[in-house]
Backbone:
């Protein structure tokens, strides 16, 4: 399967602990996006990369959140000192951008985080 | 700023009924428009898209037409099935190609 994959699918942690999620995009896609989705809501944009460069971060992304895409392939999203309000589904998507044209975003299955 | 407004759910229909889920948008320029579907316990899947005015996107019996004059992209299906039960999201690309999402509409199909 060559779709977007995310690991782990579920993560339960205690408040104050650090967690890291991984996203592997579709192989030829140069853009990678992170979103957060809470129950009953649409996704909220967090950040995106074009290749290894992080081009934009939402103001929702506090300083406890950091994302990397070191080689322009997979990406990691780390949350430090987790809080109960961080409990959500974290979604990754990828797309192919060429010049002024950006293709459709394809989503992974998400990582569901529960902070106790 | 850009925004997407969807009809509130849940929408409950009987099997084989006609479906319409309304979506209207506010945007500068001519954004691409999308419908995504999220089945219970699963991630978001692209259902259909349209990239310019009067385009019709279609997939799995669902259709939506990009109406610039009414700034709408309503989702329709002629005969729904129980397996169509899911949450449907309307979205648009903004100028930075970020997706701007509606709040989602939960669809429940009863046999």
Residues:
């Amino acid at each position: 399967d060559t779709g977007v994959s995310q690991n782990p699918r579920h993560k339960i942690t205690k408040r104050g602990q650090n967690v890291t999620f991984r996203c592997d995009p579709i192989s030829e896609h140069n853009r990678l996006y992170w979103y957060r989705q809470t129950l009953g809501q649409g996704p909220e944009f967090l950040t995106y990369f074009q290749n290894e460069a992080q081009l934009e971060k939402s103001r929702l992304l506090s300083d406890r959140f950091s994302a990397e895409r070191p080689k322009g392939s997979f990406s990691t999203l780390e949350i430090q000192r987790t809080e109960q309000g961080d409990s959500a589904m974290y979604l990754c998507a990828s797309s192919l951008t060429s010049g002024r044209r950006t293709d459709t975003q394809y989503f992974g299955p998400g990582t569901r985080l529960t902070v106790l | 700023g850009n925004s997407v407004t969807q009809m509130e759910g849940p929408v409950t229909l009987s099997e084989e009924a006609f479906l319409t889920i309304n979506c209207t948008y506010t945007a500068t320029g001519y954004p691409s428009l999308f419908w995504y579907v999220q089945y219970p316990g699963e991630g978001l899947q692209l259902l259909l898209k349209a990239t310019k005015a009067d385009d019709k996107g279609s997939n799995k019996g669902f259709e939506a037409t990009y109406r610039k004059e009414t700034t709408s992209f309503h989702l329709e299906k002629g005969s729904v099935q129980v397996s169509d039960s899911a949450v449907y999201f309307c979205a648009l690309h903004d100028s930075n190609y970020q997706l701007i999402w509606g709040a989602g509409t939960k669809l429940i199909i009863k046999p």
Q: What stands out?
A: Chain A touches chain B through 21 residues (CB under 8 Å). Chain A has a mean pLDDT of 91. The radius of gyration of chain A is 14 Å.
